[in-house]
């Protein structure tokens, strides 16, 4: 019997200014579904994206295309964590496993402000997942992106003994790359001191398109780590005359990673004199992560 092809889900989103706020148009194909968007009153449109199948298996593919119109302000999140199920050794026809893949393309027009803040990705043992995220910024556009991945279902005592996670982020302004960030996590680097050092959770926050005036903002973002478990670093990125910052998390807790990133998120909003962030309704936080920010 021939191996069955994977599921291909797509979503196309366009954000644009309407009056003093932002609205969206778009559509999706199964298993992706667009939830109802809403405005918290700060002019930023929040849109949750739902994966109705509950997770990806080998061969599944997702493609998300986002166009943020001039001056628009939007936040895209996901309704639940993205689960990547085991593939290696599960099929007699393809014992080496099949990759699940996600492609993200985000184009921001002049002065657009887009925040991509999905919930975490859980890579179960023997899962294979590859993501490519391409961000294109026009003049004065600003992008914030967050990614948190857990290697294995540690609550059930599972580690990532087989399988692999790959991610490649590219942020461009015109023909100039602001950041090219390829990453790879597998069992090989799980116990390496220069890799995960036995920790199961890895995260990245990237904020691109704004010139940092000095190191004071970085120090304040670093101070937001207090009280959280894990190793957290934050530094500036600067290419082609533009700048931003990048934060990394390595540790035991997806909650700690997301708490720190939420505090940095609030810090960056305040730096730009924007309204403070409103937590998306679909986030499962039982405590307010912003309470630790000063």
Structural account:
- Helix content is 9%, strand content 45%.
- The chain has 294 residues and is mainly beta.
- It has one domain (12-272).
- Strands 3, 4, 5, 7, 8, 10, 11, 13, 16, 17 and 18 form an eleven-stranded mixed β-sheet that branches. A seven-stranded mixed β-sheet has the order 2-1-6-9-12-14-15, with no helix packed on it.
- Strand 4 and strand 5 (45-51) form a beta hairpin.
- Helix 1 (216-223) packs antiparallel against helix 2 (254-271).
- The longest helix has 18 residues, at 254-271.
- It is globular, with a radius of gyration of 19 Å.
- The model has no long low-confidence stretch (mean pLDDT 91).
- UreD, UreF and UreG form a complex that acts as a GTP-hydrolysis-dependent molecular chaperone, activating the urease apoprotein by helping to assemble the nickel containing metallocenter of UreC. The UreE protein probably delivers the nickel.
- One of its GO terms (cellular component) is cytoplasm.
Structural class comes to mainly beta
Mean pLDDT across all amino acids: 91
Counted beta strands: 18
User: How many domains, as an integer?
Assistant: 1
Short description:
By secondary structure, this protein is mainly beta. It has two helices and 18 strands.
Structural features:
294 residues; mainly beta; eleven-stranded mixed sheet; seven-stranded mixed sheet; 2 helices; 18 strands; 45% strand
């Amino acid at each position: 019997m021939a191996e069955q092809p994977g599921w291909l889900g797509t979503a196309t989103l366009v954000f644009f200014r309407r009056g003093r706020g932002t609205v969206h148009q778009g559509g999706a194909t199964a298993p992706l579904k667009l939830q109802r968007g809403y405005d918290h009153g700060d002019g930023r449109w929040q849109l949750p994206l739902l994966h109705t199948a509950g997770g990806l298996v080998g061969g599944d593919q997702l493609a998300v295309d986002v166009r943020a119109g001039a001056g628009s302000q939007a936040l895209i999140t996901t309704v639940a964590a993205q689960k990547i199920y085991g593939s290696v050794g599960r099929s007699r026809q393809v014992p080496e496993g099949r990759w699940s893949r996600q492609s993200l393309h985000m184009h921001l027009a002049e002065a657009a402000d887009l925040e991509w803040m999905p919930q975490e990705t859980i890579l179960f043992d023997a899962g294979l997942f590859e993501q490519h995220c391409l961000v294109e910024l026009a003049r004065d556009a600003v992008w914030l992106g967050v990614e948190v991945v857990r290697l294995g279902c540690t609550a059930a005592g599972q580690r990532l003994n087989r399988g692999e996670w790959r991610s490649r982020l590219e942020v461009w302004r015109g023909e100039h790359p602001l950041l090219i960030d390829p990453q790879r996590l597998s069992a090989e680097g799980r116990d390496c001191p220069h890799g995960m050092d036995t920790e199961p959770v890895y995260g990245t926050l990237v904020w691109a398109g704004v010139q940092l005036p000095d190191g004071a903002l970085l120090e304040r973002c670093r101070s937001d780590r207090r009280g959280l478990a894990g190793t957290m670093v934050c530094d500036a990125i600067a290419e082609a005359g533009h700048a931003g910052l990048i934060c990394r998390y390595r540790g035991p807790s997806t909650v700690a990673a997301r708490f720190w990133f939420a505090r940095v998120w609030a810090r960056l909003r305040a730096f730009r004199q924007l309204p403070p962030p409103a937590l998306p309704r679909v986030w499962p936080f039982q405590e307010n992560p912003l309470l630790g920010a000063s």
